[in-house]
Amino acid sequence: MAEADPPIFTGVERVPEREASDSAALSSMLDEAASPFVVRGLVADWPLVEAGRKSPRAARRYLLDRARSVPFTVTIGEPGRGGRLFYNDDFGMNFRTARGKLADIFRGFDDNEARTDAPAIYLSSIDMRLFFDGLAEENVSPVADRRPLESIWIGTDTCVAAHNDFPRNLACCVVGRRRFTIFPPEQFANLYIGPIENTPAGRAVSLVDFHAPDFDAFPRFAEALKHAQVAELEPGDAIYLPSMWWHHVEGLDPFNVLVNYWWRDTPAFLGQPQDALNHAILALRDLPQSERAFWRKLFDYYVFENPPEVTDHIPQEARGILAPLTAETAGRIKTYLLRTLSK
Fold first, then answer.
1. Which parts of the chain have pLDDT scores under 50?
2. Which SMART domains does this entry report, sorted A to Z (predicted)?
């Protein structure tokens, strides 16, 4: 089992708790919330939560009975790492991935259940509707009106480094307990974020080991902790994470299941901000300082401020991509970028 209470959490503020009497009340709270909150017991009546209360094996049986006969991707960590899925000393990964039927993967959970030197086993971001029959329908989404991506995460007592996501996120603790340690978006400089393109799971992560932080190597992390909040979730509880909030996630029991819902409030045809950042590194970062200063002003003018002066002097029918984007104009930008980037 994961360590109960690492020293860094002493005195750290708890994530505020709120009550939602029904899905309409939750929806209203999500519309108004600018910061994270916890809802206790939000999905306590789910059949999967009930199965997990009986035993981990009962929860696995419930999932197996609904799993499709397709290969699942599983992450297998190195023993002795405390479940931390992270980099190794050479900035490769301290885990490997494999594919197999869920029954075979769950057999690995069974075989390692009593071992003290067991490897971490983790199935991450599994699409509930693509890989299971009836699972999403029986365990009804509390944010179905937002048409989110519905994912299930299944693992041993794993530890996932602090990272953020662009979509908004409602994460529901289903089996086992979870600890979330969260930070406001602007704390990125104090979290010592690692490589952008070489990441454990697609998003850049904090290099700080939260269970044994090295304040000599990462002195600004002490400032980040002043802004941290912690939530420990029991089965049935949920936490809401607004877009871009950093979250460090731990499964605290030998078997853990989480279901999360991602959605964005902007149209699906818009691009991903991370792609724009990557392109800016390619095109702008290594320019002379004077040229970067000019491009900063252009970005402020056209993107971040976008005042009426940008288009007031251009006839409306001639504004092109300077006008509010539509699916058509967004498609033209993507086509243009694909053509220019392939040169």
1. 1-3
2. JmjC
Buried residues in 146-165 as b, exposed as e (16+ CB within 10 A): bebebbbbbbbbbbbbbbbb
Q: Which residues of 219-232 are buried (b: 16+ CB within 10 A; e: fewer)?
A: eebeebbeebbbbb
Closest CA to 204 of 75, 86, 90, 97: 86
DSSP letter for each residue of 140-192 = --TTGGG--EEEEEEESS-EEEEE--SSEEEEEEEES-EEEEEE-GGGGGGTT
Q: What percent of the chain has pLDDT over 90?
A: 90
For residues 80 and 96, what is the distance between their CA atoms, to the nearest angstrom?
15
Report the C-alpha gap between 35 and 185 in whole angstroms: 10
3-state secondary structure of 59: helix
* Long-range pairs, 324-332, Cβ under 8 A, ≥24: 325/267, 325/269, 325/270, 326/269, 327/267, 327/269, 330/267, 330/269, 330/270, 330/271, 331/269
Give the residue from 302, 330, 326, 305 showing the smallest Cα distance to 314. 302
Residue-level length of the chain? 343
SS3 label, residue 265? coil
Q: List, for residues 300-323, the tens digit of each pLDDT value.
A: 999 999 999 999 999 999 999 999
How many CA atoms lie less than 13 Å away from 17 in the CB half-sphere? 12
Q: Is the Cα dihedral 187, 191, 195, 197 positive or negative?
A: negative
> Which of 6, 21, 29 lies closest to 239, judged by CA?
29
> What's the one-letter identity of residue 163?
H
- The pLDDT value recorded for residue 173 is 98
Instruction: Count other C-beta atoms under 10 Å from residue 117's C-beta.
Output: 7
| DSSP secondary structure letter of residue 45 | T
Domain spans of the chain, in order of start: 7-263, 273-341
- CATH number of 7-263, picked from 3.40.50.620, 2.40.50.140, 2.60.120.10, 3.40.630.10: 2.60.120.10
